[in-house]
Amino acid sequence: MSPSHRHAGQKAAAPPGRTIGVGTVVFALIAVVSIAAASFFSVRAAGTDDDLRSNLTYIAPAGVGGGWDSFAREGQQAMRSEGIVNNVQVVNIPGAGGTIGLSNFVTKSGQANTIMATGAAMTGGIATNDSQYTLEDVRPIARIAEDYNAFIVKADAPWNTMEEFVEAWKADPKGMVWTGGSVGSIDHLVIAQLAIDVGIDPKDLTFIPKAGGGESVQSLMAGTADIAVTGFNEVGDQIDAGRVKGLAITAPERFDDYPDLPTFKDLGYAVNLVNWRGIVAAPGVSDEEFASLEQIVTESRDSASWKDSLERNRWEDSFLTGPELIDFIREDQTKARELMKELGL
């Protein structure tokens, strides 16, 4: 996963050292999406365990096909197939690193039959967008799983190792073009971590944000970026097909079936952020309702269906609840804010 100097005509058009491709948020469109999604919510708050096991709305604060959407739909399948919840409906509310969904969710105070996916991307989105609401405004139920980022380059790129790419990057910090998820996403933050570790000012990073791994790979293949960072489960098949080269992965250990793909730990780089995913309840939910939701989520996580999801998606089980979860989220938000400052955002 490492690119070097670009051939003539392949360089991204944006000026070096600037984050490009973000665009202006179209607030009217977001409002329409949020209102339309909100129309799916139950008009009443569930009050008993039986109510919650009858019907749940599961918000994915991102578009269809993205990481949060996949996570929510895998959870939906586990709850349904195992008979944990009779009916689970996934509602997508995309925008602003998950903070549009978060804002909408906070207004559902007291509605125990609505839950929402969250994770590292949202902590970055909160910091990036100076969100009115944070994860302090909801009730975290559990951290469920983690997935890992892969650093990839085109198959014909001149770099065959992460070390080769880093040397080229150090020689031209602003000239190397990166692509990944949204500004402040885990993709963006792990690049900042690598920059700091190798002595590059993160403010010199040229980064093209994309809506998901598919778009990042397209940008890479089109020659508008030198290197892409995205979830491994989104590019593993591309590596298998020989379309891209994997330079490194943020996992703590190498994958058994990809023994030639090193971890950053193997390479001696201090890159250790992981893309955790979890579930939160709305504010105002009673302790009794919260306990029921926690039980539902725990049963889902322990199910055979969910274990199959972990294996298929190469997610790592990282189940965490209670006070330890609250501490973890606060630490994660602090890390995100610090890295955003390093990026000048």
TrEMBL record:
Matches recorded under Gene3D superfamilies: Bordetella uptake gene, domain 1, Periplasmic binding protein-like II
Keyword Transmembrane appears in the UniProt entry: yes
Transmembrane segments: 20-43
Zinc-finger found in the keyword field: no
Entry's family note: Belongs to the UPF0065 (bug) family.
PANTHER family the UniProt entry points to: TRICARBOXYLATE-BINDING PROTEIN, UPF0065 PROTEIN YFLP
Name of the featured protein: Tripartite tricarboxylate transporter substrate binding protein
Species name: Micrococcus lylae
